[in-house]
Design brief:
The chain is an alpha/beta fold and 266 residues long. α1 links the parallel β1 and β2. The strands form 2 sheets. It has a 7-stranded mixed β-sheet with strand order 4-5-3-2-1-11-12. It has 8 helices and 12 strands. The radius of gyration is 19 Å and the shape is globular.
Amino acid sequence: MKYRTIFLSDIHLGTPGCQADLLLDFLNGHDADSYYLVGDIVDAWRIRRKGFLWPQAHNDVVQAILAKAQNGAQIFLIPGNHDEFLRSYPGTHFGGIEVLRTADFTSHDGKRYLVTHGDQFDAVVTNARWLAHLGDRAYEFMLWLNTWVNRVRHVWGGQYWSLSKWAKHQVKQAVNFISEYENVLSAEARRGGYDGVICGHIHSAAIREINGISYVNTGDWVESCTAVAERDDGRLVLLDWERSTRERRHRLRRIRRARSKTLENV
């Protein structure tokens, strides 16, 4: 599938929760003229705290991105709070990837978007970093627990299910935080004279209108495995690769069952 632009964020390479295999599958099946990597691509917090974790699949993701740059795609990296060390190098190019603090993006239909990771609008990250790190550890534990839950589900034939994503949408405080985050980012885009904002950070994918401003969150590659893509007409669409993969596997199982029944009746 070919798009004008693809936006990805919150990959968290270097962590056990990173769904690198799904992302690699997505990158192999989708091309674009331009890519925006909207923060937390590499998780330096986890690497500093627990040492270097870099499976081959994570290296394959990096190589796939670099290959797209070598093939002529424009790639922009806007650092987030987990890879904030890159914010010291705005304007730097490496392997065909340009580092930017924020970006102005104009879609094919003429709409202007502010592209930012979004952590600078998160009061916990900016004003209480110790609490942000504590929350990060709790989140990491939930992802570890999620791995075991899904292993049990797999034994009984169940599909992948995100415990952390479920909890996030059940706890009232988390729901309120997401809503406030969306409102703050939309207000910032309005103040800057933009038509919309494209961000990440909270691992909650969405495309919606908020008081006349387009709020676009790319989601993540830990819980939901989503991306945002610009079509040829300039329209932005949300791509849920985990759901697409699950549906594809369902179709393949149905085809195999149908073939097995046909063979049994021959």
